């Protein structure tokens, strides 16, 4: 005679799974959970939009000569969400994030019978002038202004900052090989190396009505536009700014 299978409703494992599912639902919904109607979902999204504009304006680079034109693409909440009623909803950014490129806005209940926190995806585009490469450039090459042309790009397409003025990148070396169409950004370039630690370097300095010049030994690598330490004859160590002619300008 075949063994009798236990009734599904009396199966202890099924009862345990069913009990766990009910417990999770209770934790998420709250005792008085309600289904968000489309109007309530719209209201939450409108709250996020109203908060977004002033927050974004305060975050954007402030440069009157290089104004950015923003474009916001906001996602939506899942209409199937079940959330407990809330008297006060607070928009916020997740820790470590910012309104730049792909991001999200948090909406959390701070006054209600059950606290909850949901997120709306948002994409921020910031259009503005930038210098874009005309041709391929090898790694370690020194950039000249003829290598690029100015066009409008989305600054927020990458996290690295756009180098919007030629003086920020002309004369710099490429950190890696670059391709046509790339906007020149901070992570793509590095200062040109003028001399190495241990080299003999000419140090110049000037003040009111006088100037001095001496040769010393570099204690650090010399990168154009950055500080370097030089030991002068007699042992005195001075600091100055590295020039593109491989000298160091010392402030007196």
List keywords for this structure.
single chain; 252 residues; alpha+beta; five-stranded antiparallel sheet; five-stranded mixed barrel
Note down, in words, how this protein is organized.
The chain has helices at residues 12-29, 38-59; strands at residues 34-35, 69-74, 82-83, 88-92, 101-111, 117-133, 148-154, 173-174, 189-190, 193-195, 200-207, 210-218, 222-223, 227-231, 237-242, 248-251. It has 252 residues and is an alpha+beta fold. Strands 2, 4, 5, 6 and 7 form a five-stranded antiparallel β-sheet that branches. A five-stranded mixed barrel has the order 11-12-14-15-16. The longest helix is centred in the first third of the chain and has 22 residues, at 38-59. The termini are far apart.
User: What proportion of the residues is helical, as a percent range?
Assistant: 10-25%
Mean pLDDT score: 82
Number of strands: 16
**How much of the polypeptide forms β-strand, as a percent range?**
35-45%
* Uncertain spans: 4-9, 12-39
Number of helices: 2
- Strand count, sense and closure of the main sheet? 5 strands, antiparallel
**End-to-end gap:** 106 Å
List SSEs in N-to-C order: HEHEEEEEEEEEEEEEEE
- Rg: 31 Å
Shape: elongated
The secondary-structure class comes to alpha+beta
